[in-house]
Amino acid sequence: MLKIKQLKLNKLIFNFFIFCIGIVIMYTIIKSLINPDKFDYYINFLIFFSIIFFSLIAINFVKNDKIITNLNILIISGIISLYILEISSLYLISNKESFQFDSNKKIAKKLGVYFDERTLGEVYRDLKKQNLEPKLAYSRIQINTKNEQLQAFGVISNSLIILCNESGKWITFKSDRFGFNNPDHLWDEEQIDYLIVGDSFVQGHCVENDNNYRSLLEKSSNKNVLSLGVAGMGTLNEYSMFREYGLHKKPKKVILIYMNNDLDNLFSEKNNKFLNKYYNDSMFTQNLLNKQNIIDENTEHAMLKSNAITGNFKINRFVKFFYLRTFIKENIFSLINKDKKINSTKNIYDRRAKNLPLFYSIIIKFNNLIKSYNGEFNLFIIPAAGEFHGSKEEKEANKKLRNEIYNYLKEKKINVYDIHENVFLKLNNPLEVLPFGDKVKHENHFNEKGFKLSANYIYNTIEIVNDN
Q1: Residues 126 and 233 occupy one common structural domain
Q2: Are both 266 and 355 inside the same structural domain?
Q3: Which of 93, 263, 367, 443 is positioned for an S-S bond with 352, CB 3.0–4.6 A?
Q4: Which residues, including other chains, have CB under 8 Å from residue 223's CB and lie 6 or more apart?
Q5: Phi, psi for 254 (deg, rounded to 5)
């Protein structure tokens, strides 16, 4: 009698597994219909789970109790093992995300330097209590509505944005009407003399607003200076962003801040259907100037789901082995496809050089676009991550890339200047332009001195050299 009950229980458990996999298949089909752009992504899961589903059904028809019992043990053991790996992956990913902040904090403590130890989430909640309605620097989201799809660029507009903390103080700024780090009145000016385009360095990581590129160039020139900077951008994103927000202002001089890491960003950007439209169609526009309400609403919705606000652990992600899949993608699949591991310090030149033809093509388009209204295009090369603290091989690979880019663009008669070669490497101690200098072994953004030295070089170059 006991044996019969045990067999029935085994059968019930086995049928439950089949039912669960059927639910997963239905869920995957629904997600692929809701997000047709990700069909290629979901089809892999659909095929995988369908094979398991029909295999289990076939075994069920065999009615071999021993096989079913062993499979139940195997499946349960496998699920338990996977969730142990999921917990471990969550721990490793969380530590990796906070590594730079924690390292800076430890060094500051050793040096006796004040460091605001609050996390991003804690700063957000503290400002929220003060009724300041803070926002995180969430940006570059893709928006899917019933009527249209959009690729956004900037952060939430007209808001107090929490940016970053590398030197000990949390940096915030008031975003303008389009979600960039500018005084809003600049968009009403008839003439923009300088427009700076770039990634986090142009956005102002991680210095007070008075010491970012826009403010420093404004002080030096006493002219109208506008910036379009968003963290994590590569050259195709920057070109597209300028087309949407900068072109209609027809700035006299455009300054593109480039670093070799931008070549890594092109791996994902060249597969973005929106950015490809900007690249292939000179007349393409999303008319984002008139869609800020849609951008703000959807960006805030995504922001409120971020780890800083909700915490790293999310039950829906945990159930779907999100953390384990992320860890495998970043650390195992990248060993097979080295282009996927864009943060790797190995194979830097060969990996990034693959995107040089696309990079050159974008820069030529960018330059021609500015020349079409008699503006002036200038590209300034700043050091990539690893050019201060990296290994000899890492520094040599980045230098080789910088020299190749410089020489190629010079041949094409495009204004190009190397800040690292002409400014930082001429210092007795180049590391003094970074927070905590040689006390840390990871790359931070420039400190106030780094921004001031490079901004002075930019100003002197485009005002004195180019005008003579």
Answers
A1: yes
A2: yes
A3: 263
A4: 193, 194
A5: -105, 130
d(CA 254, CA 229): 13
| Global pTM value | 0.84
Q: Look at residue 451 and tell me whether its pLDDT is greater than 90.
A: yes
pLDDT digits (tens, 9 = 90+) for 177-217: 999 999 999 999 999 999 999 999 999 999 999 999 999 99
Q: What is the DSSP string of 28-41?
A: HHHHHHH-GGGHHH
Dihedral sign (CA 148, 152, 157, 159): positive
Q: Identify the band that residue 85 occupies on the pLDDT scale cut at 50, 70 and 90.
A: confident
Q: Which residue range forms the structural domain that includes residue 371?
A: 120-311+347-465
- Whether 72 is in a domain gets the answer no
- Compute the 3-state secondary structure of the chain and give helix, strand, coil in percent, each to the nearest 5: 60, 10, 30
56 & 124 share domain: no
Cα–Cα distance for residue pair 181/174, rounded to 1 Å? 7
- Mean pLDDT in residue range 368-382: 98
String of b and e for 100-120 (b: at least 16 CB within 10 Å)? bbebbeebbeeeeeebeeeeb
Least confident of 139-148, 150-159, 282-291, 425-434: 139-148
Residue 362 lies in a domain: yes
Residues 53, 149 share a domain: no
| Residue 161 and residue 32 in one domain | no
CATH number of the domain where residue 294 is located: 3.40.50.1110
Q: Are residues 159 and 307 part of one domain? A: yes
The average pLDDT across 20-44 equals: 80
Cα–Cα distance for residue pair 366/240, rounded to 1 Å: 9
